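Customer ticket, subject: "Can you confirm the structure for Universal stress protein?"

Message body: Hello, I'm evaluating your service for our small team and ran a test protein. I'd like someone to confirm that this is what the system normally returns, since I don't have a reference to compare against.
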Amino acid sequence: MFKKILVPLDGSPLSEEAVPFAANLASRLNAQLLLFRVLERGLLERDTHDSGFETETREYLELIKQRLVNDFGFNSELVKLRMVSGEPAEEIALFSHTEKCDLIVMASHGRSGLSRLIMDSVAAEVVRKAPVPVIIRHSRLREEFVGNPLLTPIVVTLDGTPTAESALEPAFELAQQYGCPLLLLRVLKPFVPVDELEEWFAENENKGQDYLDSHAFDSYRLKAMNYLEKVAAPLKAKLVQCDTALVVGDPSEEITKYVRAVEAKLLVIATQGHGDIYMFLLGSVADEVFQHSDVPVMLVHVASHPHNLKSTEEVATPV
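Agent reply: Thanks for trying us out. I re-ran your input and got the following:
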């Protein structure tokens, strides 16, 4: 259940762009919002709690809280303020753990895609270290959740691997709690990976090369469709609506087009990388999708979510 959402702020207008989105989400989920500011060491030492900078930071967080109450009608009892001194990514991840947060929402700090974001901000470290999913909202996005929120779906990208399936559990829980559809999307590149159909080729090699050439992709497509249906089966038993979609083409282009076509509220992608998320995101499909997608992207780090829905194949100072 998503009952506690952490929103890291650094005092910049850009970081504050995550606040309306987080407030919208929290209102729908009846969740608590934690507004969190990390002051890098040197700006505020822990033994100088009466410093002017600390007072200024406290007033800043209070101002954001009042904006939530006045502009969004948010229940002030559901907004908590915290600040600490330390290294931002470390403190954000630690706080999300000690406070048992369910989700972190951040704004993009880059204008040229997720690669720039990862290079220039603490977001990569937060995704890698935090024990919960991280939603990153690009600064250029329009207002989210337009239309009927109960009909606007969450899209999860799958590629047939357990790595991608790590995104299923948090996506399922959010869709279930939100009461909206869940769409499982797989994009096939327009060629057949031989290793995926090795058994099929062996079984049909006696039918000749012409048969193999003309039927290989159909078999590949059928295998992918069966995979999606098997993954979706246990979800369909628990959700009002869970559908699957299989498209052929360039992954980043097709994911972006599909998300736009179904007017999704959120795209969920699993990230891999054993201690180095840069290798997954830089130059990857996720980079292109984030740059062009019309919706926020939830990143689920595989190491933080080892138990997914199986398919067949220092303490913060209160303000």
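A couple of notes from the result: The two ends are 26 Å apart (CA to CA). Confidence is low (pLDDT under 50) at residues 273-283, 307-318. Feel free to reply with more questions.
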